[in-house]
Amino acid sequence: MLGRLARPLVQRCATSITRDAVAARHISTTMLPEDVELLRKMCWDFAENELKPIAGQIDKEHKYPLEQVHMMGELGLMGMVAPEELGGAGMSYLAYAVAMEEISRGCATAGVILSVNNSLYLGPLLANGNQEQLEKWVSPFLDGQHVGCFCLSEPGNGSDAGAASTTAKHTGDGHYELNGAKAWITNGYESEAAVVFATTDKSLKHKGISAFVVPKPHEGISLGKKEDKLGIKGSSTCVVNFDNCMIDEANLLGKAGDGFKIAMRTLDAGRIGVAGQALGIAQASLECAVAYSQQRKAFGKPISTMQTIQSKLADMECKIWGARLINWHAANLKDNGHPFSKEAAMAKLVASEAATYCAHQAIQVLGGMGYVSDMPAERHYRDARITEIYEGTSEIQRLVIAGNLLKEMVQ
User: Fold this and answer.
1) Helix-strand-coil percent breakdown of the chain, rounded to 5?
2) Which residues are catalytic?
3) CB 240, CB 188: distance < 8 Å
4) Eight-state DSSP code of residue 206
5) Strands (E), 147-208
6) Is the dihedral of CA 63, 68, 69, 70 positive or negative?
7) What is the pLDDT of residues 102-129, one digit of tens each?
8) pLDDT tens for residues 289-325?
9) 3-class DSSP state for residue 129?
10) Which runs of consecutive H residues, i.e. helices, occur in 75-117?
11) 240 near 114, Cβ under 8 Å?
12) How many angstroms separate the CA atoms of 38 and 29, rounded?
C-alpha cells in the first residue's frame, strides 16, 4: 500500500508524468507491481525536474541538498518501509530498491542520503526497537525534516566490524558512558540521531558489541572535519567522536551483545539500497552516452551508427539489466521473509561494478567532452567509485557470496 504521505503525491504524479518521461526508459509494467511502477514513474519525474538540474551544482559546491531532502520526505521517500501507523509509507523493499535507482539517477548525493536514513538508521530501529523507541526515534525521522546516521566503522577497523574499539560502559545508575571514534559517517553533520555500535564486554569479542540510539547534538559528542571526497560531494562525511558521552540505558537497541548481529543484518538489507544507487549512476551514464552519441557526428554521421560505439552501449545495457534483476530478486526475497544475504551481496557487487564500468565507458563515448565538468559523465565516474567501497567492499561481497554458496552446496 502507498503510505499516508506518499499516496496523494503519487496519485498526482501519475497524472502529470509526461509521455517523454515514460518513453525515456521503458520498464515493462508486467515486471513490477502496479504500486511500485507508479512509484517509479513518480521518482523518475522528481529526478528529472528537481535533482538533475541541480546535481552539478551540489557536486561543485559540496552543498547538502536540504530542500530536495525535504521534498523527498513529503513524497514519503525518507521512510519508505516504515509502517503507516508510525507515519511511514509502508511500502516494500522492492519499492525502496526501485526508488533508490531513480533518485540516484538524478543525483547520487540525494541517493546516499536517502539510503542512509532508510536502510542504516531506520532499518535497525524498525527491526529491533521497542514501542517507545519507535515513537521517539523513528516517527520524527520519516518526513525529511530530520535524518539519522549509522556509526559502525572506526579509523582502525574498516571491514573488520567485529573489532570495535569504541566502548560503552554501564555506570550502574541507569546510564552508559560511550568513548571512542567512528569514521566515514554519512550525514554526520546533518543527522539528529545515530545508531552507534560499541563494545560492552571486551572478553566476548564480537559477541560483546551492543547497539545504541544516540541523540545529536549531545554532550560528549564532537564532529571531525568534513572529508573532501572524490564523489557524492553533497553529503557530509566525517568522524564522530564520543568523549565520556552519557546516554540513558533505555537507548540500548535490542539486548546487550546483540550489536554485531544487528549491524550485519542491517548491512545485508542496506546493500540492496546501495545496489539501487549504483544502478542509478550506471543508468545515468548510459543515458548520457546515448544522448551524446546521437548528437555527435563524425565522418558525416552520428557516432551512434558506428559499430564500436554500439558495442559499448550494448554492453552497458546488458550489465545494467543483469544487476537490476538480481537486485529486484534480492528485494523480493527480503519482502517474502526468505534469506537474502547472498543475493544482496551479489546485487551490490554486480551493480557497483556495472556503475564503474558504465561510467568509464560513457567517458570513452564522449571522448574529450567526457573529461570536463561541462558534461555529467565525469561526475558519474567519480560518484560510481564509492559504491564498490561502502557498506562492504567488493572483496567483502565476494567473501559473503562464496561463504553462503559453500554452505548451500554442502547442504
Assistant:
1) 60, 15, 25
2) 391
3) yes
4) G
5) 148-151, 167-170, 175-186, 193-199
6) positive
7) 999 999 999 999 999 999 999 999 999 9
8) 999 999 999 999 999 999 999 999 999 999 999 999 9
9) coil
10) 93-106, 108-115
11) no
12) 9
Q: Is 253 exposed, middle or buried (0-12, 13-18, 19+ CB in 10 A)?
A: buried
Residue 161 has a pLDDT of 60
Cβ atoms < 10 Å from Cβ of 77? 32
- Of 170, 157, 164, 163, the residue nearest 198 (C-alpha): 164
Letter string b/e over residues 116-151, b meaning 16 or more CB atoms within 10 A of that residue's CB: bbbbbbbbbbbebbeeebbebbbbebbbbebbbbbb
Contact 236, 64 (CB under 8 A): yes
C-alpha cell at 85: 501507523
Position 243, amino acid: D
Which grid cell is 92? 516494500
Cis, peptide link before residue 376, omega less than 30° from 0: no
Pairing outcome for strands 209-215 and 301-302 = unpaired
Residue 213 and residue 262: Cα distance in Å, rounded?
Answer: 12
Q: Distance (Å, rounded) from C-alpha 324 to C-alpha 98?
A: 9
Length of the chain: 411
Task: Using the Cα atoms of residue 391, residue 97, residue 349 and residue 408 in order, give the sign of their dihedral.
Answer: positive
Residue type, 276: G
Cβ pair 353, 388 in contact under 8 A = yes
- For 128, 129, 136, 178, the CA distances from 250, given in Å and listed in that order, are 13, 10, 11, 14
Read off the C-alpha cell for 386: 564509492
Instruction: Look up cell 514519503; give the residue.
Output: 76
